[in-house]
Write a structure and sequence with these properties.
By secondary structure, the protein is of the alpha/beta class. The protein contains 42 helices and 15 strands. It has eight domains: 175 residues, Winged helix-like DNA-binding domain superfamily/Winged helix DNA-binding domain (Arc Repressor Mutant, subunit A); 72 residues, Serine Threonine Protein Phosphatase 5, Tetratricopeptide repeat, CATH 1.25.40; 206 residues, P-loop containing nucleotide triphosphate hydrolases (Rossmann fold, 3-Layer(aba) Sandwich); 62 residues, no CATH class; 75 residues, Orthogonal Bundle (Arc Repressor Mutant, subunit A), CATH 1.10.10.10; 110 residues, no CATH class; 80 residues, Tetratricopeptide repeat domain (Serine Threonine Protein Phosphatase 5, Tetratricopeptide repeat); 129 residues, Alpha Horseshoe (Serine Threonine Protein Phosphatase 5, Tetratricopeptide repeat). The strands form five sheets. It has a five-stranded parallel sheet, with helices on both faces. A hairpin with a 3-residue loop joins strand 6 and strand 7. The two termini are 56 Å apart. InterPro entries: AfsR-DnrI-RedD_regulator, BTAD, OmpR/PhoB-type_DNA-bd, P-loop_NTPase, Sig_transdc_resp-reg_C-effctor, TPR-like_helical_dom_sf, TPR_rpt, WH-like_DNA-bd_sf. Keywords: DNA-binding, TPR repeat, Transcription, Transcription regulation. It comes from Saccharothrix australiensis.
Length: 1009
């Protein structure tokens, strides 16, 4: 049972030592530290000597330094509890004291309730005892293993049993024998020689008309007592036996309680056989769906869950069903103002369960409604039925269920009038008393349910208007609604708590397959089973369809099913039974959509990239962003899309595959073609805007006008452009592939050209390589020869950065030959620059310097000072690598002047890095550090993580040379992380070796700061 907090703090000893503040669990540390808290909680408001804490923690055998460890635990606990003023751990003369309201500890609260029950009349006593028993869930002090903890567990188990027996006595006097019977039978099995339990069971059996069973239980108990203890049953049990034997009329249940009760329908279908996992969702339902109040609307106490009934909590023991003092909670976590005599009027119940995250408190008492939403086939009904069946005993006045056919192949949704007619029949209303008018039916239904503790499951709802008349009256019922639509009006108007259902995890998916096919088959065909889990993507209906087919064909290997799923995609999940066909189930969600919404859904299935942002979606569907937002909201409300942060919209892979099939089957080809043209042009022209912000000195090559209806995303500055590219770069690559597939060669080439600066900044080396491979193929179909030259040059550079030196120089020399043939001086200069870098990476610094000098000579003829500065820096860098530091310094200083004069921070940073290198190699380590720090600041301001990694790598060397090992270690670790993120494995390996060497160096004197 997870007990929340309405006031401030709640402590639990049953089920483990736990604490919550405002519904948030506190981290209480390791087991021994929690043991210290347990002792202090048991002795709440009393001073506990340190020696007693040591004894209870280690059982008289404390380890070395146990006392200092204890003081450390106390200090940490004081810090943990500092978040609330309601519990204070203080040092007192003679020990330590935990000061708090004892009603905020489940142990003390339960003892208080039991004491009050033993002084109360039967009606109040049964309620108080049930409140106490609700707090006793799980093993007390779970996880603690000291002798004191073990002894306390035994004592507390005895207290719990005594309370259970008191509860059974009182409940029997109240005539609740039928509800008690299962728990009494289980308790008798666990305590076969307990005569008080035997008497309670015999009385319950007798009052239930099972006198023969009661007499037989007595005979078995007597025989066991004689065999094991050598004694007969006590006088009380013998007398009860005689009274049952002679049919004593005084044994019948009290007349007031045994009077005929209303019809209690039991309409819940069985729990789904393949249901698995969903622990967080079950726990969430436990939190937001309360148990009925112990003191019902009319003071009833005869319909509550019997003591000893099976534990119907969700996974992890989460119950969340009742506040610790038993008062009713409405809307799940909140409850009506307190009416208990021990509490101030209106005060919150101590230890009341927490409010569900993100939901405001309700404004008044009402029926509790949980609205389970999600796509068709995601498992909403499975979840509702699994939870309902686990908790059916809680709703002892009955359970109603109806399939509202909101999304069904069989016809129109069920009307509220039809559903009400079925409910009134189930509640025992004669056909001639059922009103014809909908409002009158709803009023009668609310009257019949107002005072009852019932569960109503409204499955497969289409709209709020279909649900609202079916909401029961009063405050004691619970409603579960499942729908593919999100039903926001149900939340706004009726206080429903939404619970959105997502796909299963891989572990849950595997468990479902195992449940259907058996562990042996899944283990024997492990690779194929793993493929099925991956291909189904956690979609429960897809997994169920596949599992059912595989179970029906045990002679066929799972690998054949995998092959079919790969070959046919979502069509492989079709079936003649529409309820077992994923395409059919998804198609039902489209019926209530408008034609523009259905078209948008289909087009989103073929949009490039893993998801779609609002601006791209608007150009895709050819509508304004306001109109598109409304369409996307409708699709999200129908659970066909999921809105994610950043105003983006995503589909599950199988839903996307179905949407793509719809696009090809239902959307005319001209419409599809125009939509893809617009969205690809949206990506291209927005990327072009970004590229101009990154490097205005790169030759301007306009991609041509966009298609009609394209509205590129505005990018006012470089940070905005970088953020957009970071979010969209998977979509930009996908857009290029879409352009290639549709033979839009011009677009494919220009996408690569406009992404080059971004890939250089962020170090997306493999994406850069893929983009230029596609661009080179596109260039073969373009009339301008410079597109091929630039593609070869950039492809060579991409290979060089990834270590493909042979491919790099081959592509670059082909590019150079073409540039010379076409007498393009600018291209020749940039190709020589890339060849200089490529030869440096191949280890030939002499050739690298030759190409750098060619670059400088050519750029000096072009009147482009920024490119001349880049060439000067390149010559300086390669001269430095060859040991000609004077030449290097002169060229780099000249480059720095030009870069600063023309406000080019990227080039300035590169030159500062070169000067850092020169000063390091001339043993001017402080100057090297100075220049590297300046370069690093510029690269970071530009978002250039690729060169940031390089400069961090370089900076570590002069820091190490100065004896600043901690600083060197810090920058190399940061460089290592960036290299790994960028897939630069050789660089990462080199830095890892440097770090290892630094760690192996013997520690010396103090660092030079």
């Amino acid at each position: 049972m997870v007990l929340g907090v309405v006031m401030a703090v709640w402590f639990r000893l049953w089920g483990g030592v736990e604490a919550e503040v405002d519904g948030v669990p506190l981290d209480l540390g390791p087991a021994k530290q929690r043991g210290v808290l347990a002792v202090l909680l048991v002795e709440a408001n009393r001073v506990v000597p340190a020696d007693l804490l040591l004894d209870r923690l280690w059982g008289g055998r404390p380890p070395h330094r146990a006392r200092s460890t204890l003081y450390s635990y106390l200090s940490r606990l004081r810090a943990v509890l500092s978040v609330t003023d309601e519990a204070r751990l203080v040092r007192r003369s003679g020990g330590y004291q935990l000061t708090l309201d004892e009603q905020r500890v489940d142990l003390h609260r339960s003892r208080h309730l039991v004491a009050r029950a033993r002084a109360a009349d039967d009606e109040r006593a049964v309620a108080l005892l049930e409140q106490a028993l609700e707090l006793w869930r799980g093993e007390p002090l779970a996880g603690l293993d000291s002798p004191w903890a073990e002894g306390l567990r035994v004592a507390l188990d005895g207290e719990r049993l005594a309370a259970e027996l008191d509860h059974a006595d009182v409940a029997l006097r109240r005539g609740r024998h039928a509800a008690l019977l299962p728990g009494l039978a289980d308790r008798a099995r666990r305590h076969p020689l307990d005569e008080r339990i035997a008497a309670q069971l015999m009385l319950a059996l007798c009052r239930g008309g099972r006198q023969a069973d009661a007499l037989e239980h007595y005979r078995r108990l007597r025989a066991r007592l004689v065999d094991e203890l050598g004694t007969d049953p006590g006088t009380h049990l013998q007398q009860l036996y005689q009274r049952i034997l002679t049919a004593d009329p005084d044994l019948v249940a009290p007349a007031a309680v045994t009077a005929r009760s209303p019809v209690a329908p039991r309409q819940l279908p069985a729990a789904p056989a393949l249901f698995t996992g969903r622990a967080p969702e079950l726990a969430e339902l436990d939190r937001i769906v309360p148990a009925a109040p112990l003191d019902g609307p009319a003071g009833r106490s005869d319909t509550h869950e019997p003591a000893g009934a099976p534990d119907t909590r969700g996974p992890g023991g989460a119950a969340g069903t009742r506040s610790p003092d038993g008062r009713h909670r409405t809307h799940g976590p909140d409850h009506a103002p307190g009416t208990n005599a021990d509490d101030a009027p209106g005060a919150a119940a101590p230890g009341a369960p927490p409010r569900a995250a993100g939901h405001p408190p309700p404004t008044g008492a009402t029926v509790v409604i949980s609205a389970i939403g999600g796509a068709g086939g995601i498992g909403k009904t499975w979840l509702a039925l699994a939870w309902a069946n686990r908790h059916r005993e809680r709703f002892s006045d009955g359970q109603l269920f109806v399939d509202l056919r909101g999304f069904s192949p069989t016809g129109e949704p069920m009307t509220p009038g039809e559903a009400l007619r079925g409910f009134l029949d189930a509640l025992g209303v004669s056909p001639d008393r059922v009103p014809h008018d909908l409002d009158a039916r709803a009023a009668l239904y609310r009257s019949l349910t107002a005072e009852r503790r019932m569960l109503v499951v409204l499955d497969n709802a289409a709209a709020v208007d279909q649900v609202a008349p079916l909401l029961p009256g009063g405050t004691s019922c619970t409603v579960l609604v499942t729908s593919r639509n999100r039903l926001p009006a149900l939340v706004a108007r009726h206080g429903a708590r939404p619970l959105s259902l997502d796909v299963l995890t891989d572990t849950e998916s595997r468990a479902l397959l195992t449940a259907a096919l058996g562990a042996a088959r899944v283990a024997a065909e492990e690779p194929a089973a793993a493929d099925l889990v991956r291909l189904c993507g956690g979609f429960p209906l897809a997994l169920a369809v596949i599992a059912a087919r595989a179970a029906a064909e045990p002679h066929l290997p799972l690998a054949e099913t995998v092959a079919e799923l790969r070959a046919f995609g979502v069509d492989a999940l079709d079936d003649s039974d529409p309820t077992a066909s994923l395409p059919a189930v998804l198609s039902w969600s489209l019926r209530r959509l408008t034609e523009p919404q259905r078209t948008a859904f289909a087009l989103l299935g073929i949009a490039p990239g893993p998801d779609t942002g609002l601006p791209a979606a608007a150009d895709l569907v050819g509508a304004s962003r306001r109109e598109t937002r409304a369409v996307l909201r409708a699709l999200a409300d129908a659970s066909l899309l999921e809105r994610t942060p950043g105003d983006r919209y995503a589909m599950h892979d199988l839903v996307r595959a179905y949407a793509a099939t719809r696009a090809h089957d239902t959307v005319p080809e001209p419409t599809r073609d125009a939509a893809l043209t617009r969205v690809v042009d949206f990506y291209l022209h927005t990327a072009h805007t970004a590229q101009r912000l990154f490097d205005p000195h790169v030759p301007l090559i306009p991609p041509g006008p966009p298609a009609p209806g394209v509205h590129p995303h505005p990018l006012p500055d470089q940070p905005t452009a970088l953020a957009w590219l970071d979010a969209e770069h998977p979509h930009l690559l996908a857009a290029q592939q879409t352009a290639v597939a549709r033979r839009r060669h011009h677009t494919a080439w220009h996408l690569a050209w406009n992404l080059t600066g971004f890939y250089r900044l962020r170090g997306h080396l493999r994406d850069d390589l893929a983009a230029w491979r596609a661009a080179l193929e596109a260039a073969e179909h373009l009339p301008d020869p410079t597109t091929r030259i630039r593609a070869l040059r950039n492809l060579g550079r991409a290979h060089s950065r990834l270590g493909g030196h042979e491919e790099a120089t081959a592509h670059l020399h082909r590019a150079l030959a073409l540039a010379e043939r076409h007498r393009d001086t600018g291209l020749r200069a940039t190709i020589h620059h890339e060849l200089a870098v490529a030869w440096e990476r191949r280890g030939d610094d002499r050739k690298a310097l030759d190409h750098a000098r060619h670059t400088l000579e050519l750029h000096r003829t072009l009147d482009n000072p920024v490119w001349e500065a880049r060439a000067l820096n390149s010559v300086g860098w390669h001269a430095a690598r060859l040991g000609d530091h004077d030449t290097a310094r002169a060229h780099c200083r000249a480059a720095l002047v030009l870069f600063r004069r023309h406000h080019n921070p990227d080039g300035e940073a590169a030159t500062l890095d070169s000067l850092g290198y020169i000063h390091y190699h001339t043993r001017r380590h402080h100057l090297a550090v100075h220049y590297y720090h300046q370069a690093l600041a510029l690269y970071r301001s530009l978002g250039n993580t690729y060169e940031t990694a390089n400069t961090l790598d370089n900076l570590g060397r002069p820091q190490a040379a100065l004896g600043r090992r901690d600083r060197a270690r810090a920058v190399w670790r940061e460089a290592l992380e960036l290299y790994r993120e960028q897939g630069r494995h050789a660089d990462a390996h080199r830095v890892r070796r440097r770090l290892d060497g630094l760690d192996d160096t013997a520690a010396g004197g103090p660092e030079d700061h």
